[in-house]
Amino acid sequence: AQSVSQHNHHVILSEAASLELGCNYSYGGTVNLFWYVQYPGQHLQLLLKYFSGDPLVKGIKGFEAEFIKSKFSFNLRKPSVQWSDTAEYFCAVNPENSGYSTLTFGKGTMLLVSP
Amino acid sequence: NAGVTQTPKFRVLKTGQSMTLLCAQDMNHEYMYWYRQDPGMGLRLIHYSVGEGTTAKGEVPDGYNVSRLKKQNFLLGLESAAPSQTSVYFCASSMRFRRGGGETQYFGPGTRLLVL
């Protein structure tokens, strides 16, 4: 079964600092990859996704992620974080040959941005 | 267009009690899912449905049952609640799987369940 590993459980940054959250998955075939965000007290929202084409994907609110197939990674980046980026971030994978859209999630990374 | 809605928002149960969580979506999505979210565990798939009248087990199905009698609704049942089922439950929906499509799942606001 596939699994998703997020390297940091908690990240604390000051405003304007750069962000990179790591995500690795274990699956040898073609995958669709997602980053979701959960703001405090809210439901999950899609930040960005990769399913084909350019491995550098841009999402909402200035986030981007790069799919590196050889490293089985899909790291999330933002050049300059804001206080409003405080949230929990989840990486998720959907194997293409599953035939379904089910997602396997990582355990999440809690980001705290101090003003 | 409400998206995905869940009822109730919060519930307290005693061990052994039963309850049903309701999920509704108005996006005409084929697929629907139930997840539970626990601290440090991320989201884990309980059951899912790929169409009206069909259901399938996910990663953590024990202690739960589901039904999809109507395309827009997906019910999650707990027949005999246990403290281990204290969690936040999220419903999601998506369009049907298309190879190369990377269908997005849309999530509801969650139901917070406490089992005493």
Short description:
The complex is a heterodimer of chains A (115) and B (116). Chain A contains no helices and 12 strands. With 115 residues, chain A is mainly β.
Can you describe this structure?
The complex is a heterodimer of chains A (115) and B (116). Chain A is mainly β. Chain A has strands spanning 3-6, 10-14, 19-21, 23-26, 31-38, 45-50, 56-58, 64-68, 73-78, 87-95, 104-105, 109-114. Chain A is built from no helices and twelve strands. In chain A, the strands form three sheets. In chain A, strands 2, 5, 6, 10, 11 and 12 form a six-stranded mixed β-sheet that branches. A four-stranded antiparallel β-sheet of chain A has the order 3-9-8-7, with no helix packed on it. Chain A has a two-stranded antiparallel sheet with strand order 1-4. Chain B has 116 residues and is mainly beta. Chain B is 0% helix and 53% strand. Chain B has strands at 4-7, 10-13, 19-25, 31-38, 42-51, 54-57, 65-67, 73-78, 87-94, 106-107, 111-115. In chain B, strands 2, 4, 5, 6, 9, 10 and 11 form a seven-stranded mixed β-sheet that branches. Chain A binds chain B through residues 4, 9, 32, 34, 36, 42-46, 49-52, 90, 94, 96, 98-108, and chain B through 31, 33, 35, 40-45, 48, 50, 58-59, 90, 92, 94-97, 99-110.
Question: Tags for this entry?
Answer:
heterodimer; A: 115 residues; mainly beta; six-stranded mixed sheet; four-stranded antiparallel sheet; globular; B: 116 residues; seven-stranded mixed sheet
